[in-house]
């Protein structure tokens, strides 16, 4: 039987870091994803020592959409069943859209939406085939209003909210 794990993206700081601690405290084995391998390594060591749960980590940049497939392939190769997926990775940019770096805006779309959708799609199939699971797709209060000086970020969060509400109803 596959080993059950909780996969958390954006786990090296902020909300993702706190969710890693909360999940470990509740006896979840973890697979932590972020760009900063050194931070992931420190976090994994600290969580293992404190809570005695299994903690693996992978350093991937979710701006590269193919990272989602690589993460999924890793889980398949290690016989890991992601029964909880927390899509937390994301970032914003603060400036007028017209003055922004368009590549940074496109990168933000890849991290905040494309990878979130890709990971959800990949792991949801396994959850369905294995009797269930949970996906938490992180939005924010930004999902409910326009955001001058963060127009793309607010629009991305507005996508996540109905997406995360619609998929369970399917």
Keywords:
5-stranded parallel sheet; 170 residues; 5 helices; 51% helix; alpha/beta; Rossmann fold
What count of domains describes the coordinates? Answer: 1
CATH third-level topology: Rossmann fold
Strand content: 15-25%
Shape: globular
Q: What about the largest sheet?
A: 5 strands, parallel
SSE series: EHEHEHEHEH
CATH architecture: 3-Layer(aba) Sandwich
Task: Identify the strand order in the major beta sheet.
Answer: 3-2-1-4-5
Number of E-state strands: 5
Structural class: alpha/beta
CATH level-1 class: Alpha Beta
Corresponding CATH superfamily: NAD(P)-binding Rossmann-like Domain
State mean pLDDT (0 to 100 scale): 96
How helix-rich are the residues, as a percent range? 40-55%
Give a structural overview.
The protein has 170 residues and is of the alpha/beta class. It has a single domain (3-169), classed as NAD(P)-binding Rossmann-like Domain (Rossmann fold). It is built from five helices and five strands. The protein has helices at 14-25, 37-51, 66-77, 102-129, 151-169; strands at residues 3-9, 30-34, 55-59, 80-87, 134-137. A five-stranded parallel beta sheet has the order 3-2-1-4-5, with helices on both faces. Helix 3 runs parallel beside helix 4 and helix 4 runs parallel beside helix 5 (151-169). The radius of gyration is 16 Å and the shape is globular.
Topology (elements, then pairings):
Layout: E1 3-9, H1 14-25, E2 30-34, H2 37-51, E3 55-59, H3 66-77, E4 80-87, H4 102-129, E5 134-137, H5 151-169
Parallel strand pairs: 1-2, 1-4, 2-3, 4-5
Helix pairs in contact: 3-4, 4-5
């Amino acid at each position: 039987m596959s080993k059950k794990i909780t996969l958390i993206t954006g786990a090296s700081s902020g909300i993702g870091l706190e969710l890693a601690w909360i999940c470990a405290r509740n006896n979840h084995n973890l697979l932590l994803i972020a760009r900063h391998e050194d931070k992931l390594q420190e976090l994994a060591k600290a969580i293992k020592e404190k809570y005695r749960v299994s903690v693996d980590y992978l350093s991937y940049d979710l701006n590269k959409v193919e990272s989602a497939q690589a993460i999924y392939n890793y889980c398949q190769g290690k016989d890991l069943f992601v029964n909880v997926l927390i899509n937390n990775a994301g970032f914003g940019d603060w400036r007028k859209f017209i003055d922004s770096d368009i590549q940074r805006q496109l990168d933000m779309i890849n991290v905040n939406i494309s990878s979130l959708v890709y990971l959800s799609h990949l792991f949801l199939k396994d959850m369905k085939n294995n009797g269930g699971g949970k996906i938490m797709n992180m939005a924010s209060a930004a999902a409910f209003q326009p955001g001058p000086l963060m127009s793309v970020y607010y629009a991305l969060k507005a996508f996540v909210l109905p997406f995360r509400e619609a998929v369970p109803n399917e």
